[in-house]
Amino acid sequence: MHDLPQWRKNVYALWLGNFITGAGASMSLPFLPLFISEMGHFPKWELTLYAGVAYAATFLSQAIVSPLWGKLADRTGRKPMLMRAALGMTVTATLTGAATNVWLLIGMRTLQGAFSGYINNAYALIASEVPDTESGKTMGTLTTGAVGGQLVGPVIGGYIAGLFGYRIPFYMFGGLMLIAAITTYLFVKENFTPQPKQAQASHESAFAHIKAVRIIWAMILSSLLIQAATASINPIISLFVKELMHNHGNIALVSGVIAALPGIATLIAAPRLGQLGDHIGPQRVLIAGLIFCACVFLPMFFVTTVFALGALRFLVGISDAALLPVTQTVMTLNTPNEAISRIFSYNQSAQAIGNVIGPLLASGVAGLLDYRYVFLMTTILVLINLAIVMTAYHKQTPKSA
């Protein structure tokens, strides 16, 4: 371990931090609607709406605040931002568990979003240090941390919620983020030197020195649409599972498993697809991933059992592995170091907006039509994404293609 370069040691420490953040954040999400339903007697449309708003509130505030944190990170370094995010989420997650009504819950989740950003800053720190030849594989590996956490989080959260109630996973999230803060403080070392010559440049657009601007914008839009498609099922998953199971059995646990299944596939596939991108170019991996993604979402419209839903959700995980880490790699290869935190923060804002748009659209579609039509909506989002990426690559060829 002593012979390893510092950037590699940082990858290990931040992988753990990403894992903890992913696990904590996803512990309560699959049964958020069930938690809300305990706070009052709501008709189906109102419950679906509150679930969508409670889910989206975190990401809406995250979308607004992220660029400000990104600008600060380019001036102060990424480690202070990692500490700020970890400690901020320690407090807000704990308070969310103590919420006594739906509006307090929504308020706490909004605050949580304003202080979040651990995973995004982990990406930015590593992106500023990793050699170009290893960026695909490294970004893929870092992604497995967050995804691995998102994989175990819903299962543990569902099990704990079934035994002790829906508040306990929120308290566990707070405790886990405290561990992430301690780990980051002790083991992440960043050689960050603020550049006085760049003081003026910080007022410039983050895109000022980027040659492949179309590609960067396509990646940011792509992140938004990928996240919207992936997250759209979150507010309705426990309600759809409940319907498929005809209201019998441990719905919280099964919802947790169904929510976690894509994580297993992403965990296995992300580093391999990242490495493949290093060899054949991320463009090809991204386009293939989007086509595969559309082919997987469409059949979900027809599912009649939780097993069929689970199998298709597993396949979604493979497409996820070809999408988000690859967009991060393309941005890493095409962004100068002095702007990397800002570009990654714009990307996080885009993902956060996707996390708002997807669930709110899904809540509307599910409320007006049926849960199944959400999957038709996600298929359309993926096809729009494919068109944007192919158009951008057609008009401008970056060095990473």
Automatic annotation (TrEMBL):
GO terms for molecular function: transmembrane transporter activity. It is a multi-pass membrane protein. Keywords: Cell membrane, Membrane, Transmembrane, Transmembrane helix, Transport. GO terms for cellular component: plasma membrane. The chain crosses the membrane at residues 12-36, 48-69, 81-106, 168-188, 215-237, 249-273, 285-316, 373-393. Residues 10-397 form the Major facilitator superfamily (MFS) profile domain. It is found in: Cell membrane. The keyword Nucleotide-binding does not apply. It holds the Pfam family MFS_1. InterPro entries: MFS, MFS_dom, MFS_trans_sf, Tet-R_TetA/multi-R_MdtG-like. PANTHER family: MULTIDRUG RESISTANCE PROTEIN MDTG (PTHR43414). This is Major facilitator superfamily protein. It comes from Loigolactobacillus bifermentans DSM 20003. The lineage of its organism: Bacteria, Bacillati, Bacillota, Bacilli, Lactobacillales.
